Amino acid sequence: MDIIVTGQHFELTDTLRDYATDKIKKLEHYLDNIIKAHVVLTIEDSRDEKKRHVAHADIHVRGKDLYAEAKAENMYAAIDELSDKLIHQARKIKDKEKR
């Protein structure tokens, strides 16, 4: 699986990039045919200080595409929420394949 992590409006650290990559790699447990994942981490200029950190991802799977977005107080929480949403979608796909 090819994973691309980019940052917008801030300097993306290696630690943050590795954290996001590890979270996305957990999707392989649910889906075998992931082709590419593109994760974008952004800090918005928002009036709501609690929802400034945004993480969104496009996951290209053979036959389907997954998309999720999460906002949180810090980037790690946004990545965790994003991962949870993607895992939920992946589980739905896996359950449909079993039927």
Topology summary:
Blueprint: E1 2-8, H1 14-25, E2 34-43, E3 53-61, E4 64-72, H2 75-98
Parallel strand pairs: 1-2
Antiparallel strand pairs: 2-3, 3-4
Helix pairs in contact: 1-2
Brief characterization of the structure:
With 99 residues, the protein is α+β, with helices and mostly antiparallel strands.
How would you describe this structure to a colleague?
Strand 3 and strand 4 (64-72) form a beta hairpin. Helix 1 (14-25) runs parallel beside helix 2. The protein is an alpha+beta fold and 99 residues long. The radius of gyration is 14 Å and the shape is globular. Helices cover 36% and strands 35% of the residues. The protein has a 4-stranded mixed beta sheet with strand order 1-2-3-4, covered by helices on one side. The chain has 2 helices and 4 strands, in the order E-H-E-E-E-H. It has helices at 14-25, 75-98, and strands at 2-8, 34-43, 53-61, 64-72. The longest helix is centred in the last third of the chain and has 24 residues, at 75-98. The model has no long low-confidence stretch (mean pLDDT 90).
In the sheet with the most strands, the strands line up as 1-2-3-4
Shape verdict: globular
What's the multimeric state? single chain
CA-based gyration radius: 14 Å
Taking pLDDT < 50 over at least 5 consecutive residues as the criterion, the unreliable ranges are: none
Between the first and last Cα atoms, what is the distance in angstroms? 26 Å
- Secondary structure tally, helices: 2
Give the class from helix and strand content and strand pairing.
alpha+beta
Strand count, sense and barrel status of the largest sheet are:
4 strands, mixed
Percent helix among the residues? 25-40%
Tell me, rounded to a whole number, the average pLDDT: 90
Number of strands: 4
Question: What is the percentage of strand-forming residues?
Answer: 35-45%
